[in-house]
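Recall the central idea of this unit: under ordinary conditions, the amino acid sequence of a chain determines the structure it adopts. In this exercise we apply that idea directly, starting from the sequence alone.
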Amino acid sequence: MGDLLRKYWKRYFRQLGLALVGLFLVVGCYVPRTAGPTTGPVPANADLAEDISAKPTVCAEAYDSTKDYFPDKVTTEYATGFSVDYHNHYKVVTVSDPWRGADRTFQYVLVQCGTPVPTGFVNAQIVEVPVKSVVALSTTQLPHLVILDRLETLVGVSQFETVNTPEVREKIERGEIQALSSGAALDVERLLLADPDLVMTFGTGDADSDSHERLIAAGLPVALVSEYREQTPLGRAEWLKFVALFFNQERRSQQYFSEMVTAYESMKKLTADPSARPTVFSGFSYEGTWYMPGGNSYAAQLLADAGADYLWADIESNGSRPMDFEAVFERSQAADFWVNMSQDWQRKEDAIAADPRYGKLAALQNNKAYNNNAKLNQTGGNDYWESGLANPDVILADLIKIFHPERLPDHDLVYYQPLKP
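Accordingly, the structure predicted from this sequence is:
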């Protein structure tokens, strides 16, 4: 079972990617976000025109120990896996939950360029900020670079096939970035030649798939981005602020995130009436095992916020519980909706071909099976796990449209699509 679960998570990580979507107007009490992340810069405060905060890519010319070089600061409201402590000319960033069951934390001291490196941080990585070149080994980090208007710093990714971001695809076509692989196949020598200011990656606790230890040993600055450990949609999205810390882009990240939270919370109010909550279940049988999201998981939170009655909400877990097909079928046969199945399935017949027993599910029979694979690229990279993580309000709008179409009559599905008859 351990090997199977590792294969499942490796497949999950291979599917991560990005392509930022346009925002939309809907009815009711939903408050739409205004400008998307690529429509223009955040307006600068005229009073700070000559300050580091207004020019976050500028180095300090003359160090002043009494000066606060980071007047724009971020705080975390939903994310629990990282924290930041501000000092006048450096920030101490701690990743406290890098992977499941981790017995260590990771600390980064981000020093404003042009100022001295502080002492006393023996076990921390020292990174001069703002960084000017970055390698992103997970595509979940690409939307952050677009939102923060720092895409020009990107010099490498793990592989081109999983990338969905139009702006990154353009850089690939122009030959401006490299594919460096990941895990055991990571090309450390090419990474050293690229000489990035920062490598962003993730950890799983599996030495065969993790690369951060090799990179650190090679002398490269490495940041573990562990948004996947967050169990709420807003918690995962808030890791935008973590990435922003390395670019001194706190102001931009704070504004974008605040607007997104307003949109998300406004839509939650559309489904506050508990009297009409359709039943739903999630997932599919993978090599004989059905990994059912727990009641405290990211997936369950989205379903609840969208006004659905998740049939496995009683599982007191924030992970996924392995179950056999018969146990799932018994509870879900009459469910109203089925969501989030194999990304390879486009039609009902795809599900039935995988296992004829799926054909007995009421949700499939009634054309109420919806898959989160509407934005796959030609090589299978799924944008749901890319731009979707940075824009949970759009995912929530999709789910509300599915479960309560009368609440969002003008919304067109973005990440979801029905299994075709």
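The domain at 61-250 is CATH 3.40.50.1980 (Rossmann fold).
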